[in-house]
Specification:
522 residues, Dipeptide-binding Protein, domain 1, alpha+beta, 26% helix
């Protein structure tokens, strides 16, 4: 039986959406399963409910960066490009998308993907296996999930509408990578860079990219999901100021905004004309990292003192305006194998933090704390600095431009403590410790090189069933909680605000906007 077939018998959901509407009813949102559209096709053309949709977002789409999903790739790119599979936002199990089904061999080192036969690019050319091979091969060189794709020993078009992937070793989270990277037109890319007009298979066509900050999209009438999309046109403008984005929404110049810090959304409270919606399945994890080669953080007790020192609930309320969740773990509370005790292992307890510091002989130690010089991170630093000082640390703060900070995080050249965020932990623990630099086994910002950590990763890769994956998830959680080189501060949810006249806004498990069913009423 294929994984696609087994998907239909999954247990109760583990993820969901939190929709908040000021004075209005809850807007239910979710990712429409591709299985619901399997019998559809591209023949039916949608009737637009409104002539256009105006979106304001914090990042602009760069055509040269669409071959991979990186930290700066805008979530609305999903409107133009499709992926082989989607992840159910509640269960995180793969569901069919461009691939209709898949079959593994006995030892799970080879998987055959069957492709839809009714998919065309926006120039009318049918999707071919060669496009999939090109896209995955390119992603192995450029994608943020490169460490997962590098485990592929062979990628080939094995038949008409069929691609076979061969793994050097079993890889239980391969479909995280397949859901992460888009399928692009092999003929439209040179050296991994697209032409000015991107040719995709998604519900909207790329019309024009103006001035580096405005993307014009138009409905693709031959989209393979029957009845989608509903809008004739979508315009996406890049506005880096959250206040400007909020003003655009309130004035009616925009119908939907994204990437606005949660605490800034409080100005919308009581506004019946606006809905605020958070996708709990997709979040950025804010964390406090410790370089374990820097004293006094070579002592586990000092690192555990950090865990007790930070007040996560206050961070959620003051930095994120409540649009986040407190946790002692980087991954979600209902990850298979994770227990409630692990999620709440480290409550705010300054006295216990001071006791651990005294025990380690580190009370009063002065430590550096580095973070990006931005409103959100400046607020995080302010609260964390206060908490650490209450626990007995002396703290020296250094704020850097993000362009200067990111190489230091990636290369592991930060001393002492640092605050940053990352997102792959919202997919699975294994993807988090394989892809995300702060947690990456073997080469991470904290300089943890413990063989026991690598052994847990190897076991997670080889886990052949849900019970085995749950067991290793539990042990991974215990390892991180004990070693405490990575201190979770908050899970900051992907949050959108939109006019109450806009309905059926959905996001995927990775935070991509899904607007195929979205409509706007007068």
């Amino acid at each position: 039986m294929s994984d696609a077939a087994r998907h239909r018998g999954l247990p109760l959901p583990r993820r969901g959406f939190l929709g908040l509407s000021a004075g209005a009813a809850l807007l239910a949102a979710g990712c429409r399963s591709a299985t619901e559209d399997a019998a559809g096709g591209a023949a039916a053309s949608a009737t637009a409910s409104a002539p256009d949709l105006q979106i304001v977002y914090g990042a602009a789409p760069d055509p040269t960066q669409l071959l991979h999903r990186g930290p700066d790739t805008p979530v609305f790119v999903n409107l133009v490009l499709d992926r082989l599979v989607d992840l159910d936002p509640q269960t995180l199990q793969p569901v069919p998308w461009l691939a209709t089904s898949w079959e593994w061999n006995a030892d799970r080192t080879k998987v055959v993907l069957k492709l839809r036969e009714d998919v065309t690019f926006h120039d009318g050319r049918p999707l071919s296996p060669d496009d999939v091979v090109f896209s995955l091969t390119g992603a192995t060189r450029t994608s943020q999930v490169k460490p997962l794709l590098e485990r592929l020993a062979d990628i080939r078009a094995s038949a008409a509408n069929e691609v076979t992937l061969t793994l050097a070793k079993p890889t239980s989270n391969l479909f995280d990578a397949l859901a992460f990277n888009p399928v692009v037109d092999a003929r439209g890319y040179v050296d991994g860079k697209a032409a000015e007009k991107v040719n995709g298979t998604g519900p909207f066509t790329w019309q024009a990219f103006k001035g580096g900050n405005q993307l014009d999209l138009a409905r693709y009438d031959r989209y393979w999901q029957s009845g989608q999309p509903r809008f004739e046109r979508i315009t996406v403008r890049s506005v880096t100021s959250s206040q400007a984005a909020l003003s655009a929404l309130q004035s009616g110049q925009s119908h939907l905004i994204g990437a606005v810090p949660g605490r800034d959304l409080k100005v919308l409270a009581g506004n019946r004309a606006v809905t605020v919606q958070s996708a709990k399945a997709s979040y950025q994890q804010a964390f406090l990292g410790a370089n374990v080669t820097s004293k006094p953080f070579d002592d586990r007790r000092v690192r555990q003192a950090l865990q007790y020192a930070v007040d996560r609930e206050r961070i959620v309320a003051q930095v994120y305006g409540g649009y986040a969740e407190a946790s002692s773990l980087p991954w979600p509370a209902n990850t298979p194998g994770v227990t409630p005790d692990q999620v709440t292992r480290y409550p705010h307890d300054p006295e216990k933090a001071r006791g651990l510091l005294r025990e380690a002989g580190a009370e009063g130690a002065r430590v550096p704390l580095t973070a990006a010089n931005s409103p959100v991170f400046s607020s995080l630093v302010e609260l964390v600095k206060y908490d650490l000082e209450q626990a007995g640390f002396g703290v020296d703060v250094q704020l850097l431009d993000n362009a200067a900070l990111q190489p230091k995080i990636q290369q592991g050249t930060l001393e002492g403590l640092f605050i940053a965020n990352h997102g792959m932990v919202s997919v699975s623990p294994l993807s988090g410790i394989t892809v995300s630099g702060p947690l990456q086994v073997g080469r991470n910002t904290s300089h943890v090189t413990d063989p026991a950590y690598a052994e847990l990763q190897a076991r997670a890769f080889a886990a052949a069933d849900e019970r085995a994956r749950a067991d290793v998830n539990h042990e991974l959680s215990e390892y991180l909680l004990t070693e405490s080189f990575h201190i979770t501060l908050a899970h900051a949810w992907e949050t959108y605000a939109f006019a109450s006249t806009v309905h059926d806004v959905a996001t995927s498990a990775l935070g991509y906007l899904r607007l195929g069913d979205t409509r706007r009423t007068a």
